[in-house]
Amino acid sequence: MICCRLAGGAVLRVAAEEWVPHIAIVDLGGGNFTIRGPMANLLHALAQALNFSSILPLTPTQTVQRGVYKELADTRQQERAHFLASSALYKAAYQQVRKGSHALLVEDTTCRKVYSDDFTKYGRCDFYIGKEQYWPLIFSLIGRKGSPLIPVISEILEQMVAHDLYFKWLGDELPNATACLRASTRVTVNEPYSLKGLWFPPILKPSPAPPELLPDRGNAVWRLTDNMDWSTW
Asked: Which domain of life is it from (predicted)?
């Protein structure tokens, strides 16, 4: 969730995640700036309405009792999940995830950003994206309850979605986001062959033993090992 306040030429961005133990507040700098284009009226309206200078932002943490976020929290207690700051996501993706020991759980936009930039740099698809869906975006706008600005904001956002403006802008930022969408879903592992690694059905010799004492030919599978007595074959 991200709240933006534009007042007096300053931009204050508050990022809050339910399971992040702190609220990260980043001041992107003061000074004057000029906004042009169709978003100017909306942003100037927000500058007058969303003024939280006298309010301390708070968020409850670790309060979920059930569902996927509870399961995710449990993996953290088991030290299987590591929560990272947004500034550390890409380093983790290009190091730990590339090694194959970790997977990155992020919203769809960040995931596409990872392998878009990677494809731009290396020209190949080194990452796989899971079929399961996470949030497509993590951004939202918050206003005062009952404010007349909410219907105006909603109408403008609906127009942006209807005309596909946001994803048009997103596509300009992620030029190779679709380059790996049809990549193979199978992972190829190169390993040298040896007798020790082969599995095969056994060759059974004729035996006078009753049928009930013979092994099940359909289910018996043996593996060659270094300790096998080859003199019996």
From this structure: Eukaryota
